Amino acid sequence: MALRFVSRGQWGAKPPKSVTKRAPSDLLGVAVHWFGTPRAAASHEGCAALLRSVQGTHMGPGGLGVASGGSDIAYNHAVCPHGKAFTLRGFGVQTGANGDSASNRDFAAVVFMAGTGDETPSPEALETLAEVIRMWQKKGAGPLVKPHRFFTGSDCPGPDLLGWVGLKPPPWKGRKATAARTPVRDETPDWLLDFIHWRLADGGDRKLRPKGLPKPLPASAHEAAARVERMVNLMGPQESFLDWAAWRLAGQKKEERPRSVPQQIPKVWRDAFRRLEKVFAGGSTSPARAASAAATDTGPVGRQTSLVAEPRATRAQLERHMLARPHGEYTETNVRRILGRYLTASKAAGLDPLIVVSQMILETGNLTSFWSQVPRRNPAGIGVTGEPDVGISFPSWDAAVRAHVGRLLAYAIAKDGESPAQRELIDEALAVRPLSETLRGVAPTLEGLAGTWAADPKYDGKIARIANEIRASSA
After folding, report:
1. Which of 42, 58, 421, 455 could form a disulfide with 70 if both were Cys (CB 3.0 to 4.6 A apart)?
2. 223: Cα within 13 Å, side-chain hemisphere
3. In what order do the strands lie in the sheet with 144-147?
4. Regarding beta strands 144-147 and 85-87, do their DSSP bridges make them parallel or antiparallel, or are they unpaired?
5. Quick one: 26 and 151 in the same domain?
6. Could you list the residue range(s) of the whole structural domain that residue 251 is in?
7. The model's pTM
């Protein structure tokens, strides 16, 4: 098909802030994207406006993960559901859409202008997409065509295009495609890369052994895996891992999640991070906790105080504060035992017990509230709505404390940012009462609890006031 692109001028593109040249012949291939959000324009007349909106988002503050915004709309080309192709960055310019520097250097980016809930791409639109890919290959790009999911683990480019990219033979290998002429056959067996991935990414776990591996495996397969592993070791930590580690140390705010970070964090990343924690903290304290404790131990607790931190108060200070005030039907021994459970659970979870206990004191009126008494034992208003008899009761204080600590941990740490032990505690707590995904990781600091855990906009300040009263008491 004779393909004519809608030019940048025709769809009203802003000039780019800067341009990074990248010849098609330097690329391994093409990555296929979709918008996901936003959805497709209702008619073709709206497609230009849709692209202008996306360009504005990409170039605005925070766009493409850059504080000052990206240099341009991220993709090289776009195909709309109506079968038309658009020039975005165009041929010979490096993309900014694929997730990290390596994938941006190695692959062009073509986006299908639709998203979640839109209709299945039409044959006309798919043929236009195939022709754009063929044009990249004719200009020298390599033969690989990968869904964006290949680089990030996301759902992009959606189920329809994921299936289309995986078709055999590939849809872009049409009659007009230029076939590669090489004197040797493509002799790489289908199972070889599965074997290398299993050995390197899965650690050779027998339970995860891919189906279809030959028995016995040829020596050449082991040699290939060993060489790839050697190359990986020589390359060192990759950009996406470093981005994730920096984001994790900074508090894992959802809105600041780097584009290069995959949806599912690999186990080897978590293992590497824990090893680094031990190295930098002398074998015990994580750098995040050490930094947090150092930043807050010398001053009062405030809105920016981190929840994940080393203890800022002693057990004696906590007991002194609670026992000096009415504590409902609980005896002094009961109070000490409850505090002991909080100290154990909070420290194991990585939360500062001072913050957790201060929240409990606020929520229960120092264990005097109706819902905190036996047989309810609800320490933090979990499930309490203000309606008669609406709330959650716990069979023991051990279960109650774990539910409170695990739920607060879910607020403090973004999903996939937790350790296996933390994830187990969070899952236990959220089995008691589910938590919206939008609330995961919203409160790395006290400020994030106001308006989320409680509707009170001064909720964080009230917890801070109690925490500072506790710290002011003599240990």
Report:
1. 58
2. 3
3. 5-6, 85-87, 77-79, 107-115, 29-36, 144-147
4. unpaired
5. yes
6. 239-272
7. 0.53
